[in-house]
Specification:
Two copies of one chain form a homodimer. By secondary structure, chain A is of the alpha+beta class. Chain A has four helices and nine strands.
Chain lengths: 134, 134
């Protein structure tokens, strides 16, 4: 079960990685994020003007819960590295949406975001890579 | 043999990763560099002002050879991502030195660099992370 989640997670990260390369951004997946004591993120994407640190999440339900620790790591890594922190969320049969940390709702030991908030507040891939204003 | 080289390579990358975190830079190792069709690098390190893309090399001999493809990937990735390309070289029992691509010497299908050139042209870790002038 844990392994199958891990494989799906990797597939989701790779899907996004392909999207960044297809529009001329460089992107890489981080190795061994779980095995080191340092904050880590799933993906780093960049071009000459912008750097995005990305945590990837997929969900088959209508609400996605994520551990607070994952989000704190995203925040910490981005702040030190000098990158914009984004959560990329893909609900079943929907496109990828990019969410800011402030759009997450605390829910016990987790953060949560529902599909309606994602659709109203999230940016599509084409929107998140726009360089205007940077 | 190939596996033992890979393990040593990973250990060398982790050693450098610790050094960057110890001085307040964020750093991550790239996953599956060999398995994707995109240019990749071993490490990405960054702070608010600088981003370094790093290819790590270790050698027990007095000359280090590296594949031209590794270096072209470093060049390509850095240019797209908007990072400085560096080769981190560690000769046996010496410290890490950071070398620019232009300090490498073409040698057939490889690039080569000898220990004397590394010592005279390379930057020490403490020098490469200096933010003056940036």
């Amino acid at each position: 079960m844990k392994n199958s989640r891990k494989i799906k997670g990797t597939a989701a990260e790779r899907e996004l990685l392909h999207k960044f390369w297809s529009v001329g951004w460089a992107c890489l997946r981080a190795a061994g994020s779980g095995s080191m004591k340092y904050p880590c993120v799933d993906l780093l994407a960049g071009n000459k003007v912008r750097k995005l640190a990305i945590e990837c999440k997929t969900s088959k339900a209508l609400i996605k819960y994520m551990s607070k620790d994952d989000i704190y790591q995203l925040q910490k890594f981005s702040s030190l590295f000098g990158a914009e922190p984004w959560i990329a969320v893909k609900f079943d049969k929907k496109e990828w949406f990019f969410i800011s940390i402030e759009d997450l709702r605390p829910s016990g030991n987790s953060f949560a975001i529902d599909i309606e908030t994602v659709k109203s507040r999230g940016l599509l891939f084409e929107e998140v890579i726009k360089d205007e204003g940077y």
